[in-house]
Amino acid sequence: MAVPSVPLSGGDTSGPSPRGGRSAVSSAIARAAPAAVSVGLLFAAWELYARYGGVRPTVLPAPSRVFGQAWENREALMDNAIPTIRATLAGFACSLSAAFLFSALVDFWPSLRRALFPLLIASQTLPLVAIAPLVVLWFGFGLLPKILLVALVTFFPMMVALVEGFEATEKEIGQMLRAMGAGRWRVFWLARLPSALPYFFAGLRISITYAVVGAIFAEYAGAAKGLGIYMLNAKNNFRPDLVLAAVGVSAALTLVLFGLTVLFQRLAMPWERAAAGRGSEGRQ
Amino acid sequence: MTRLELRQVRKCFGPREVLAGISLNVAAGEFVSILGPSGAGKSTLFQLLTGAERGEGEMLFDGAPLDDHGSRFAFMPQRDALMPWRRILDNATLGLEVQGVPRRAARERVAPLFAEFGLAGFERAWPAELSGGMRQRAALLRTVVQQRDMLLLDEPFGALDALTRAAMQRWLEAMWRRHHWTALLITHDVREAVLLSDRIYVFSARPARIVSEIKVPLPRPRTADASVAREAAGLEAGILDTLLGATDPQLSAQRPSPRR
């Protein structure tokens, strides 16, 4: 009761309310418009050049032809997209688990970092073109070599993101927790792990795009089915339209996965939106 | 009754001496401040007390050597150290959770205190939604509910703007008059020390030693009464002189150097 009148800023919770239905839709449209315009212009220019520029469709097919062929071959494309999706997700899950395990180990025993990082950095310099056929040679045409290649390209960015995330924990939070009597494991669980979340998601957004590329590369080197082998076959049959259709499918796949990570981040970090809302309101 | 007593506590980081024989004591229910220039090693003293660092010398608590660091002190770090991923209520229960109190019981213990700390209605808010002063009060709430024997406050208002800081100091004084926590406050704000403390230890620049110990005999509340405020101002001026003299004789003399 005797609390002196520190400005309690009663307006803190009210905040601005741009989350109303109509304004949310119109702001989404406003955000998507520039991308739609640039993509539309690109396709229009391509269409005009392919039609009137005197290039043969076996060299550069018009986008209308690519879309048409994609639709006609939709079953084959889907059929080949599924193994790619499977390889991407399985490989990514493996690399995430491994990255989590190793980054936690490095966080607990920092000397491990010096032992592991040179090896990991070296693994990133391996040219995928050279390593993919070898991995296929060693592990066959099944799912395993794809998983390994996807894990190879995504493990390092995830590992670095997590290690840096753990280290980004505010020193004072750690000091305070230890003063409360928390042990190392407790500090890791209560402070270091949640502190790493923004880094984790940044790493996730980057490596999910690598993951699709990695899976396609692996299939390109040898597979029974998959977008990679489909592209290779289409190229060998002088069907650039089908190559581009498969490219379109893989691009769509990447975008969907990327969107999922953004969605996942929103669900996992609800306080971020609160912080952003306050930011636009202006800190006092 | 003396709660905390330090005898000739020293700390070196490698060849660099940070604390050069600190002896001080804090009685039960007493509010004591450590006042010193920034970088003097005040925070290092807290690190020794909370067990984050080891030093030389004797540290006694209730007459016995201090070994179980974790269970004696509730520590409030310089910045509020609120976890952005926990709602204010869950930030406030953190210390209890670490002590092993079940989450539900911890919440029940913390919830009634929100009104007193000016945080009623903000239990479910994220830290990012609070103003600087509110965050600091939430951090103090988190510190106090641990029900330790003594509070260690490390420049709790250092990061606030001047107006909010003044308001928070008044508020803390009001809170202390009601609860009589045993508290050790680190600050470099002379006014803050005079306003809040029963006694003040003035530290020198690094390596830190105690330059003087000042009793603050002013009646409380110290902000409400104009005559008390005048006395406080006199005391402040005296301490400031000691502090400036101790940190750097050249600074207090203000003599322009002949050449640059």
Q: How far is it from the N-terminal to the C-terminal residue of chain B, by CA?
A: 54 Å
What integer value in Å does the Rg of chain B equal?
A: 19 Å
Tell me the total number of β-strands of chain A: 0
Chain pair sharing the greatest interface: A-B, 35 and 48 residues
What proportion of the residues of chain A form beta strands (DSSP E)?
A: under 5%
Structural features, described:
The complex is a heterodimer of chains A (284) and B (260). Chain A has twelve helices and no strands. With 284 residues, chain A is mainly alpha-helical. Chain A has a single domain, classed as MetI-like (MetI-like fold, Orthogonal Bundle), CATH 1.10.3720. The two termini of chain A are 25 Å apart. Chain B is α/β, with parallel strands linked by helices and 260 residues long. Chain B has one domain (2-253): P-loop containing nucleotide triphosphate hydrolases (Rossmann fold, 3-Layer(aba) Sandwich), CATH 3.40.50.300. Helices cover 37% and strands 24% of the residues of chain B. Chain B is built from ten helices and ten strands. Chain B has helices spanning 42-50, 69-72, 88-92, 94-99, 103-110, 132-144, 162-179, 190-196, 226-247, 249-253, and strands at 2-13, 16-27, 31-35, 56-61, 64-65, 73-76, 150-154, 183-187, 199-203, 210-215. Chain B has a six-stranded mixed β-sheet, with helices on both faces. Chain B has a four-stranded antiparallel β-sheet with strand order 2-1-4-5, with helices on one face. The model of chain B is unreliable at 251-260 (pLDDT under 50). The interface between A and B is large, with 35 and 48 residues.
